[in-house]
Amino acid sequence: MTDPAFLPANLPAPPDDGACAHLPGMRLPALSLPATDGDAVDLATLPGRTVLYVYPRTGRPDEPLPEGWDLIPGARGCTPQSCAFRDHHAELRTAGARVFGLSTQDTAYQREAVERLHLPFPLLSDADLRLAGALGLPTFGAAGETLLRRVTLILREGVVEHVFYPVFPPDRNAADVLAWLAAHPV
């Protein structure tokens, strides 16, 4: 089995294909998403700043990664990215932002990741791609599934304030977000 917490050397970097250029300034739709803490979260209604990191899928140490996963630019690194947001969570909260992760995996699958990785924030499920479709988030196909490409949004009062895309390497994303928040205080 491949350890999903490990980022191998020489992973292909995703290109900046402009797939998220339309997002800055976009208002999020009123849409409730199931969260791993049992709540339903409508990102459009949250006050202040929210960090929403969007990732393809969390792997499990006891399951193989999809075939060819490491060859898909930007696919590998969901666990290291989540762990980095976990490790920087207190600093992100101090900077005035709440944190959510979002994938197309169902809430039960995500709940296992929250427990195993000791995440202090909920993961949101967009299994039916409602939010992805409404925002025009980029996707790709792997192992017969439609998955979200990795992008991180800084939301402010339900509007996309800043976009990190492409995100690479994923384990540095939380530090990059923290640096951006420090440079752009409310």
TrEMBL record:
Keyword annotations from UniProtKB, A to Z: Antioxidant, Disulfide bond, Oxidoreductase, Peroxidase, Redox-active center
Residue ranges occupied by any Thioredoxin domain in the UniProt entry: 22-186
Pfam families: Redoxin
PROSITE patterns per UniProt: THIOREDOXIN_2
Statement: the UniProt record of this protein carries the keyword Oxidoreductase: yes
InterPro entries on file: Peroxiredoxin_BCP/PrxQ, Redoxin, Thioredoxin-like_sf, Thioredoxin_domain
Protein name: Peroxiredoxin Bcp
Source species taxonomy: Bacteria, Thermotogati, Deinococcota, Deinococci, Deinococcales
Protein encoded by which gene: bcp_3
